[in-house]
Write a structure and sequence with these properties.
CATH topology of the largest domain: Rossmann fold
Shape: globular
Helix content: 25-40%
Number of helices: 13
CATH class of the largest domain: Alpha Beta
Distance between the termini: 42 Å
Structural class: alpha+beta
Number of domains: 3
Number of strands: 32
């Protein structure tokens, strides 16, 4: 019988907005047996709301703003799908979710190729050597030439590609997809309809295909398969798992071409939970003792209860409900009475969980992003980043009687990673920092819906924020005194330098060479 970590696959889906990620997520859940009906995201009313999107602003806009976790089974394996925001302006939550997965699916629009957001998320995956399977989606619409797309992936991402499933036609001539590894032809009973049957062939030259595919199109496809076999890399498992090669599947999530092939491919090649780096050593998933780290905190998932749920990736051991775990930052033991397993807004009490699984720990603000839990060992998992914000605003409160609600809202939402909150040395108004501009709308919407407080934002004279540190306390004090107007403190009490431009940061560096200026910092929750 395989070890518990060997039967788990924990992965994320990354893409640019509108590449079809939410539709693909639904179809994977549908074909994995987790939901009974996959609704079309563009349909009206209830069907428009993807099963993984629960926040009001997500339902209104038809986008994923937070990262959801969904667990389901397929081929005797446990799949943990972490859904990441795909819209243009996303929060640190997206980056941190990628620290909790062992592989990723990259979704690319067949008519647009690689877009800015895809590139940004791919770079985060590359930093962590996360293996990537690529789905070229929307082949049922007019698309770029398959070779043009494959070359673009290879050149833009500096990644070898191994085409495994190629399209037969596109747009109005789309007949289906051909699996070059096993000769399966995925098609529909009628041209243009959804995938509903597999024709087993001996290969692309099988005479069966002459009866099923238009003559000229079949000739082009046969030529394409032949050229692909010599023009691109063969699939190599080690190269894929090291993050150097991406297997590529062409398909259409909307028409069901791709999801089943993807599920089978993930089951076959995606890595089981990998070792996790920590401050004192690397933790292997097959270790007996339970350990894990919190990569996300979500407030108010249930609108009827003021709950807070910490999402913990289990790195080792077999977790059992009711276990006592040591919270390293506080040094206190926590009894985990009601751990949750997720399926979007549905949740169940988890009696047990293994390495690679994500459980939710309900709490009242005592658990933070970056917290490590163990069965007593003093170690801290590393690799969770905090990023310097790209957007800075001062928070304005029209109703002065709601200061308490405002403070609660900002503290909760900062804890989630939606925003960073800075306290200035001078003046009483909070300053917030965000990774993307859309988060202003999200912050305003959630403050109103969940905390009953209306807030506004106003620009400030500063455009950049960086953390500062110095090993010499005397020099640090002198720097803080000389720049009192530019210094604010984050919610952990760490000093942050605000600047109007990169030139100002560079100029200040020259005047204070002992000070280190940082655009990212390791989110390690040290002991209190």
């Amino acid at each position: 019988m395989p070890a518990s970590h060997e039967i788990r696959r924990t992965f994320a889906i990354i893409s640019h907005p509108d590449a079809g990620k939410t539709t693909l997520t639904e179809k994977l859940l549908y074909f994995g047996g987790a939901i009974r009906m996959a609704g079309q995201v563009k349909a009206r009313g209830e069907k428009r709301r993807a099963k993984s999107d629960w926040m009001k602003i997500e339902q209104e806009r038809g986008i994923s703003v937070t990262s959801s976790v969904m667990t389901f089974e397929h081929k005797d394996l446990i799949f943990n799908l972490l859904d990441t925001p795909g819209h243009e302006d996303f929060s640190e939550d997206t980056y941190r979710t990628l620290t909790a997965v062992d592989s990723a699916i990259m979704v690319i629009d067949a008519s647009k190729g690689i877009e800015a957001q895809t590139l940004k998320l791919f770079e985060v995956c590359r930093l962590r050597d996360i293996p990537i399977i690529t789905l070229v989606n929307k082949c049922d619409r007019e698309a770029k030439d398959p070779f043009e797309l494959l070359d673009e992936i290879q050149e833009t991402l500096a990644l070898d590609v191994a085409p495994l499933v190629l399209p037969i036609g596109s747009g109005s001539t789309f007949h289906g997809c051909f699996n070059v590894t096993n000769g399966e032809y995925y098609t529909g009973a009628h041209k243009g309809e959804a995938f509903d049957r597999i024709v087993e062939t001996s290969g692309i030259d099988d005479p069966q295909l002459d009866e099923l595919v238009d003559g000229q199109l079949l000739e082009e496809c046969r030529e394409m398969v032949e050229l692909a076999s010599v023009g691109y890399s063969e699939f190599d498992l080690d190269s894929y798992r090291e993050g150097h090669l991406s297997p590529v599947i062409f398909g259409s999530a909307l028409k069901d071409f791709g999801p089943t092939a993807l599920l089978d491919l993930i089951a076959e090649i995606a890595p089981a939970p990998r070792p996790s780096p920590a401050t004192t050593r690397t933790v292997n998933p097959d270790e007996k003792k339970v350990s894990g780290f919190v990569f996300k905190v979500q407030a108010n998932m249930d609108s009827h209860h003021r709950d807070r749920v910490a999402f913990m990736r289990i790195c080792s051991g077999d977790f059992k409900r009711g276990m006592k775990l040591r919270q390293i930052r506080t040094g206190k033991d926590v009894m985990v009475h009601s751990p949750i397993m997720f399926f979007a807004q549905d949740r169940e009490i988890a009696d047990e969980a293994g390495p690679g699984d994500v459980i939710g720990i309900p709490n009242h603000g005592t658990i933070r992003v970056g917290d490590t839990f163990t069965e007593g060992e003093q170690l801290q998992f590393t690799g969770l980043p905090a990023f310097a914000p790209e957007v800075l605003r001062r928070v304005r409160l029209p109703d002065g009687t709601k200061v308490k609600q405002l403070r609660r809202a900002l503290e909760d939402l900062a804890e989630e990673g939606l925003t960073q909150v800075f306290k200035p040395n001078i003046g009483s108004n909070w300053i917030i920092g965000l990774v993307g501009i859309l988060q202003l709308d999200v912050l305003k919407s959630r403050a109103k819906a969940e905390y009953g407080v209306d807030i506004d934002f106003e620009p400030i004279t500063y455009n950049m924020a960086v953390w500062v540190k110095c090993d010499d306390p005397v020099k640090m004090k002198a720097f803080m005194s000389a720049n009192v107007n530019n210094i604010v403190h984050d919610r952990e009490g760490s000093p942050v330098f605000l600047a109007k431009s990169q030139w100002e940061i560079d100029f200040t560096k020259e005047r204070h060479p002992a000070i280190t200026f940082m655009k990212t910092r390791e989110l390690i929750q040290a002991e209190a």
